[in-house]
Design a protein that fits this description.
Helices cover about 40% and strands about 20% of the residues. With about 425 residues, it is of the alpha/beta class. Bound molecules: 2-phosphoglycolic acid and zinc ion (ZN).
Length: about 425
Amino acid sequence: MSRIKSLSAIEILDSRGRPTLLAICRLSDGNVGRASVPSGASTGSAEALELRDRDPTRHAGLGCLKAAENVSQDIHRALAGQDFPSQQALDRCLIDLDGTDNKSRLGANAILSVSLAFARAQAAQRGVELYRHFGDIAGTVPRLPKPMINLYSGGLHAGGQVAIQDVQLVVPGAASIHETLAVVSEVFRAAAKRLHERYGMRLLRADEGGLAPPFASSQAMFLEAVRAIEAAGYAPSDDVALTVDVAASHFFEDGLYHLDGEQLDSANMALRISEWRRNFPIVSIEDGMHEADWAGWRGLYARLRGTALILGDDLLCTNPVRIRRAIAEKAADSLLLKVNQIGTLTEAAEALELARAAGWHIVASARSGETEDDWLADLAVGWAADYIKVGSITQSERLAKYNRLLELEHYARLTF
Ligand code: PGA
Ligand code: ZN
């Protein structure tokens, strides 16, 4: 049993310099857990609500003072002195206290910060590493995920100079996280050198630390990724493959996909993606279609199944109701798992279980606005995600996660 002594939260800043929350959970036996929460930019419309102050005189309306107060006042008052036998019991209590479908009363940021801080406090109480505790919460056997590492960015993360959001690298044959990072680092350096030669200037770095040159088209972005892999001395596909976050919801207007100067309907969008997959070593397509274009998703699934992951982010929003629908309609076969899209660990674990039971792949993901907190690495390992998506290998909020993965690889002797 874990009796809560106090809960509090403060407004801190994320990697974009925008406010977010850090929560502190103190148990009566003296154990303490703290956790901070991330924030997205290309958010799905079905995500739980991130509570912002909307006071234009502070942080352009993005302040989190109200959300912090909800933790330190309302949630503290309701939970302090209570004994919680499990994460599920705590999260149920938070969900009931909020009482809305999308956590808009207390804020999903407030609720998630408490959910995570409590998990850390319980792990400390049990004297186990956080990844092991996460595994026990979900009933999973810990395993290292393969990183999908950001190389180039466009879309909302990089001023929109090319429509698609991210091109990432995976190293299929790597034996460890260590080896993966060493290979990716060489490709990243080769890519940066090529771009420096081409554009002769210091390039914009996108929100997740990826390179963000003004590519002429999506094709040019993929081709340049292949050239960078080759320039680093690796074989595209066999040594280093690509994954893509199309983030198509963000260039869909009036029923059409506005891509590379063209306007494509759903069928032609699916065709375009399958051409990319044929011409480039792409092993995963995330958000290839708009979040509400279910027919488009079914078409994409019919075309690509078995050849690349059909990965749902905005489509699914880590939401069990939407995941059930996608399974029933054969609209996707992989879940991008972002805990803050749904707001508690318990609901995210439910999403994980549903997806796993359907034979889907799991990609545990960070957000474009992150903090130095590293709980996502423990979550990906504890929940045995197939992949982890954290961004580039620059910027400390990204490296906090990679470095924690290296630490877990080292002393837990975990393997892929
Ligand atoms: P976001 O981007 O955090 O801005 O939503 C990440 C993603 O789309 O996967
Ligand atoms: Zn995405």
